[in-house]
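Hi V.,

You were right to ask for the full record rather than a summary. Here it is.
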Amino acid sequence: MGERSTLKNIILKNRSFFISSHISPDGDSIGSQLALALCLEKLKKNFYIYNQDPVPWRFENFPDIKWVKNSAPSGDFDVIFFLDTANIRRLGTIIKDIELKDKFIVNIDHHISNELFGTVNIIKPDYSSTSEILYELLKPICEIDKDIAQLLYLGICTDTGSFKYPNTRANTFDVSSKLVKIGVDPSAIASRIWFEDRPNRVRLLGDVLRTLEIHNGYTIMYVTRKMLHQNDSNEAETEEFCDYGLTIKGVKVSVLLKERDKGIIKVSLRSKKGTDVNQLAVYFGGGGHKNAAGFEVEGKIEDVISKIQHKIGEII
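Predicted structure:
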């Protein structure tokens, strides 16, 4: 109750708000940012949403997606909201574009690895998503209408993998049920998210699955820049690829490496309940959740695979 009244006071007493989230935004980061913005609009507040990277194509047809910008704003803001972001570094270039010194920062997140970098920190690692947290925070502040409900449901649905990941709890279903009662159509949301793939993305998935290696309790696969180019695809279209490794019987951890420019390898980690991949991510300088985490390192794919294999046995 204290967190809700604190946030309400912050919003009611201020006029302008900057909203941002992590690099390579996902459904939870986009959904939570826009839901907050819609609430602020109802209260006739000024706001600006700025992310380093563009909105993924999956979410382009959700309400007011045009509000999400990839260019730095001019002017100053009373309050800065960072949503679904475990640490300042995950914001990317935004920390260079926005003056953060002496700013009032509200940090709302569900990552267990959150570094509590805000003036106010509302961190709930036992919640499925930032969107689930926001539902409870926004209720006393503004009416949760159908548009806001759709965006919160988007965040919950994507971060739980349509309610199949271990972060799905009783409260997740309770909140989702309330959003459906407001007017969310779960089938329509699922169709927007999961059933509008481009043929090239499916072909890219085939190429990635051909790299799959099955080891003792874990799988490793990768996507190269060449694969992306040959399939006229981009990295955003590789979201959820890592999950396929977990569909194999006996596999506890799935690892997906993504080759980026300048020798950077992005590594996504997924695990079944009972295996903590956040430990592995933290070891390599990243973070996340017990069952979904990641990190970035410099190197060649084969060398990074070797380093992961050397360490992964400790968590399996």
